Amino acid sequence: MTMTWLLLLCLILLFGGQRSSACPDLCSCKDGQVDCSGRSLTSTSIPTSFPSGTISLLLHDNLLTTIPNQLLDDLTSLRSISLHGNPWVCDCGILYLRSWISRRPSSLVSHPRVSCSSPPSLRGRMVEHLTEGEVLESCQYWYCDLALASVVALFVFVVVQAALLVALIIFLRRFETLSKEAKRTTEEGFTAGDAHRENDYEHLKDSSI
């Protein structure tokens, strides 16, 4: 059992190491440069990892609004990065990128214009110059939008449930009416049958006399 676990651990480390050194499918790699520029990458389609030996990383001219947390932390050999030309949304999601830029080594070369595209109050501001208070204030609007969307969804849900309840009540009343009509028709049928049999009996009785 111990040997099996050791073998499994070795395989995980082996394939993990291969993945960390592999070039992402949406990018091109050469001599330590990983070029992912102009690929219409979004914050959800951006590669989940880059080669551990990446020296230069090009992410400019995409559709990035945020950078996933910890994505850049393991790139210890990184010397140059380009992030301009992306529609950065400076709300809570920008905190990781802001923090990473602020603690970058002095040897790291970063292209300019890593600036906010939204919200309107922060448009044009450089991400690295944002204060934590400004970012958190922009998050409040996001929470308000989320709360409003939740209220609207709840209202729609209540309306749908009310409509279903009304439809059920109408159906039950209609079913009750139909049941009463069917019962009355059945009773009338039995009454008419009894009267018919009684008339036949009287007719036979009169005939026998």
UniProtKB/TrEMBL annotation:
Q: Which UniProt keywords apply?
A: Blood coagulation, Cell adhesion, Disulfide bond, Hemostasis, Leucine-rich repeat, Membrane, Signal, Transmembrane, Transmembrane helix
Q: Where is the secretion signal located?
A: 1-22
Which stretches are transmembrane?
146-172
Q: Which GO terms describe its biological process?
A: blood coagulation; cell adhesion
Keyword Membrane listed? The answer is: yes
Cellular localization per UniProt: Membrane
Q: Which InterPro entries match?
A: Cys-rich_flank_reg_C, GPIb-IX-V_Complex, LRR_dom_sf, LRRNT
> Which residue stretches, if any, does this entry annotate as coiled coil?
none
The protein's predominant localisation is membrane
Q: Which intervals hold domain LRRNT?
A: 22-56
Q: How does the entry describe its membrane topology?
A: Single-pass type I membrane protein
The terms describing its cellular component in GO are: membrane
Domain (LRRCT) ranges: 86-140
- Please tell me whether the keyword Zinc is annotated for this protein: no
Write down the superkingdom of origin.
Eukaryota
Protein name as annotated? Transcript variant X2
Organism, as annotated: Nothobranchius furzeri
